[in-house]
Amino acid sequence: MSELVIEDLRAAVHGKVILEGVDLVVRSGEVHAIMGPNGSGKSTLSHVIAGRPGYEVLGGSVRIDDIELLGLPAWQRAEAGLFLAMQYPTEVPGVAMRDMLTASRATSSDPDEIYELMQAEAGRIGFDEKFLERPVNVDLSGGEKKRNETLQLGVLKPKFAILDELDSGLDVDALRMVSHRIEEETSQSGVGVIAITHYSRLFEQLHPDVVHIFAKGRILETGGPQLADELEESGYERWVGTHVSQPAMASDPFADPLEP
Ligand code: ADP
Ligand code: MG
Hints:
alpha/beta; 12 strands; globular; binds adenosine-5'-diphosphate
C-alpha cells in the first residue's frame, strides 16, 4: 500500500500564482476525480506534481510514501512511481514508442518481453500495433495519442497515475476501452489514480471513490461520485459564484498552451 500525499502545494507560472494551497491524499487502488472550470489550474497541478519545467513552486510538499518529489527531475519522479497522461501529449520525432518503453525498463530488462507487453496492452485498448514502431505521437490523432498514453500506463505500471483529460479526443468506444483498462489496473496493480475531467461519462467504467471540485487554484469541495452528476447538471456556479459554462470544444484541443 502506497500513498501520494500533496500538502499545501503552491505554485506560480510567469509570476502569476495558480496553485494556492492544494491538499490531497491518494492511496493505492483509489480513484480521485478532479473537476473544475477551464483555467482553474488543473493542468498546472498535474505539471507541478510531475516536475515539468517552467513552474515556480512556492511551497508545500508532494510525496510518494517517504520520497519527496518536489525538487527531483521528472525522470526520478517517474522512477518513484509517478505517471502523467498529459492533456496535450508530446510528440517525440525520431524516437519510436517501442524504443522509448524498452529504454525505460520499467517492468523487465528484456526488450522482447517489454514488446510483448506493449502488444498485449495495444490489443486491450484497440490501439494499432503499427504505432509501436512509429515516432511517439507524431501524426497521431487526438484519440490515438490518448490511447498511446494509456498503453504506456499499462506497461510502466506506476504506483500513481494522473490522467489529465484523458477522455478528450476519444470516441465512445475508445473511451470505454481505455477507462475500463485503467479501472482494471486499479485492482490488478493497485494503481492510485487522479482523473482530471469535465465529463462524468469517464466514470461509467472508471469508478471514482471521491470527486473533488477544483477552482481558484485549490480544492473547494470533496464528495462522493454523485457530485460529478450534480456538477454536470448545474455547472460550477455554486463554487465560483458566477456562471461558468461547460467548456465548448476548443478550436484545436491538442495544441499545447505552453508552446509559443
Ligand atoms: P486548467 O487545466 O484547469 O484548464 P491550466 O492549469 O492549464 O488550467 O491553467 C491555469 C491558468 O494558468 C490559466 O489562467 C492559464 O492561462 C495560466 N497559464 C498556464 N500556463 C501558463 C504559462 N506558461 N504562462 C502564463 N500563464 C499560464
Ligand atoms: Mg487543463
